[in-house]
Request: fold
Amino acid sequence: MLGRGPRGLVLTTGDELWIINTDVDATRYIGRRVIIEGAVAGLDRLKADWIGAAERARRARNVS
Reply:
C-alpha cells in the first residue's frame, strides 16, 4: 500500500515500511495497492523507476 509519510512516499508491505525515492509522480496511487520496480537504495529505501496500480496489473494478466 502506498502512502505519504513525514519523509515522502512510503510503501507498506505487511510488517515492513519502505521509503520510496522516485522522480515519478505517484500521488494518484496514494492509498492504493501498487507494484514498484526499482532497486534497494539503503536499509529502508527503494529507488523506484516505475510505480503502477496492482489492480491493473492483475487484471491484465487475467485477460490473456
About this structure: Residues 2-63 form one domain.
